[in-house]
Each structure stands twice: as structure tokens, then as C-alpha cells.
Amino acid sequence: MRPDIIIYSQQIQKVIMIELTCPAEENILSAQIRKSAKYMGLQNLISSSGNWTSQLITIEVGARGYPANSVRHCLKKLGIRKNVAKKAIKALSTTAAKCSYGIFLMRNNQCWQKQDLVYIDV
Description:
This protein is α+β, with helices and mostly antiparallel strands. It has helices spanning 28-38, 40-48, 69-77, 82-105, and strands at 5-9, 14-21, 53-60. It contains 4 helices and 3 strands, in the order ββααβαα. A hairpin with a 4-residue loop joins strand 1 and strand 2 (14-21). The radius of gyration is 17 Å and the shape is globular.
């Protein structure tokens, strides 16, 4: 029950939870539904604890690098400028594709060796 990113404001008593999923592109919608259901209890717990409100934003980047519309929607909701959002989406897409490729290359190894981090120049 730990979302990937949590942003909160004590002043306005609001919690924004962001959950990233990297499913196969054909499973993006089902991944979004599954993640929304997974955190519904946590959202209810936050809301029932007083005057706090919570919002869950799921973002999906396909394993082959396709960024779902939810990514752009999330960045817009957070107030990220269009040109910065465009670069971030490209970096997310490239990172997902490179990581999936790395997993593919290691598919037959019983024990994975330590690898260098994926570096994306933004």
C-alpha cells in the first residue's frame, strides 16, 4: 500500500498519490483499473481520518515505451509546463523501452549480474 509518489499539503489538507505501472501496451486499461482498485482502501482511510482529501493518479508507460494519456494528464494536473512535460514523457518512454530490452536480454539467465543504471540525457 505504498504509491510510487506521494505529494501532500498540510495547509490545504490534500494528498496526491501517483502510481506508475509499466504493463504491456495492450494491458494499459486493465493495469489502470487494477491500480485504482488497489489503492481505494488507502484513499478511504485518508478521507475518513478528518478533513483530508486524497486523489490517486495512475500513470502508465507501456513496456515497449508507449506513454498512455494518463502521463500527460498527470503532468498537466501538477502544473508542469508543456515543453517540460514533453521532455519528461520522452524520457519516461525511452527509459521504459530500455529497461524492457534489458530484461529481455537477461531472460535466459538464472542469476542476473549487476548492471549499470540506464542513463537518459534530458
